[in-house]
From TrEMBL:
Pfam families: ApbA, ApbA_C. It catalyses: (R)-pantoate + NADP(+) = 2-dehydropantoate + NADPH + H(+). It comes from Fannyhessea vaginae DSM 15829. SUPFAM superfamilies: 6-phosphogluconate dehydrogenase C-terminal domain-like, NAD(P)-binding Rossmann-fold domains. This is 2-dehydropantoate 2-reductase.
Length: 308
């Protein structure tokens, strides 16, 4: 199977590496020139659980020409529209496209380019990091829940699930993936933005009653908006899940802290708390916490001189 990874940062490298190791033809697509040069010159270096170094094909998205059997999208959320525009030429009648980006509402962008029966939406608890250009940090284990966007595509998705499972990616075909996508968005919406704003670890943020009040208020807004959008969400179950994740991840700075505070990169806030605030406005639901957090993250992006 010819598989393109559209956005080959930390997660794209993990998935591309595992799929290539399992015998698939994998092409990494990316726009970060130092990363492309490093992989072309030295191969992709893996550090972490099982250090390795492998030769991998990598190119700019617009340089890819052969039709894809399968494309995995792994840009940051705000890079997705441009990536889809840049890979139009490799999308064929039967090309399956999987989106595992964090955040909400990506299907609205993807369906402008891909037939609904070929879109797979999902969520993953695999993680990855980048030590620098061409060096991926792969630690721990994970899994993926995915579902065909259109029920017509369910049968033809079976081959994708098989291929990914042969690569050890632990995929489950989920008959209703939306609640899992929203639950993960709640984790990101309570930890990422808050720890980036407070410049602290997850454990430090979750240690005070003031912070926990904010966490519960954010989850309430996500659930009100999600349920009004037809997603089956159980608020108390999500609160328990978020608290559980906060304990496991206590010593870590979440990815938005790494992006904004440590690396001065734009954040995915418009697709997490910002997405809930936008959808809430359309539905007539008040989301003051999500709106304020989105505004504050944008203010911080502006202060750091990295606004759009
Ligand atoms: P990433 O930032 O590592 O890569 C995304 C894009 O940004 C890639 O094209 C990459 O080349 C580019 N990039 C990265 N560092 C750069 C730099 N210093 N200069 C220029 N370009 C740079 O993103 P990711 O962590 O792979 O995440 C992709 C998607 O998956 C996001 O939606 C994220 O929220 C989600 N996600 C990430 C993780 C994780 O553990 N990293 C886990 C689950 C979901």
């Amino acid at each position: 199977m010819r598989i393109y990874i559209a956005g080959s940062g930390a997660m794209g490298c993990r998935f591309g590496y595992q799929l290539q190791q399992s015998g698939q033809e994998v092409i990494l697509l990316d726009n970060w020139q130092d990363h492309i040069d490093a992989i072309k010159q030295n191969g992709l270096k893996i550090v972490g659980d099982k250090p390795d170094c492998v030769k991998m094909t990598i190119m700019h998205p617009t340089e890819a020409h052969e039709t894809a059997d399968f494309i995995i999208l792994f840009t940051k959320a705000m890079q997705l529209p441009q990536m889809l525009e840049d890979i139009k030429q490799i999308i064929g009648e039967h090309t399956k496209v999987l989106c595992l980006l964090n955040g909400l509402g990506h299907e609205d962008t993807i369906r402008k380019y891909i037939k609904e029966e070929n879109i797979l939406m999902g969520v993953t608890v695999w993680t990855a990091g980048l030590k620098g250009p061409g060096v991926a940090i792969l630690q721990g284990k994970g899994s993926i829940n995915l579902q065909s966007f259109d029920t017509c595509g369910k049968e033809s998705s079976a081959q994708i699930v098989d291929v990914m499972n042969q690569a050890g990616l632990n995929v489950i075909y989920d008959e209703d993936v939306l609640p899992s996508i929203w639950r993960k968005a709640c984790v990101n919406g309570t930890m990422n933005s808050t720890c980036a704003l407070c410049d602290c670890t997850i454990g430090e943020f979750f240690a005070t009653e003031d912070a926990l009040h904010t966490v519960r208020a954010i989850i309430h807004e996500f659930c009100e908006v999600g349920i009004a959008s037809g997603v089956k969400l159980n608020e108390s179950e999500i609160v328990d899940y978020v608290m559980h994740v906060s304990e496991i991840a206590a010593p870590h700075y979440p990815s938005m802290h790494q992006d904004l505070v440590q690396n001065h990169r734009l954040t995915e806030i418009d697709f997490i708390n910002g997405a809930v605030a936008r959808r809430g406005r359309k539905l007539g639901i008040q989301t003051p916490y999500c709106q304020m957090i989105t505004d504050l993250i944008h203010a911080k992006e502006h202060i750091l001189g990295i606004s759009k």
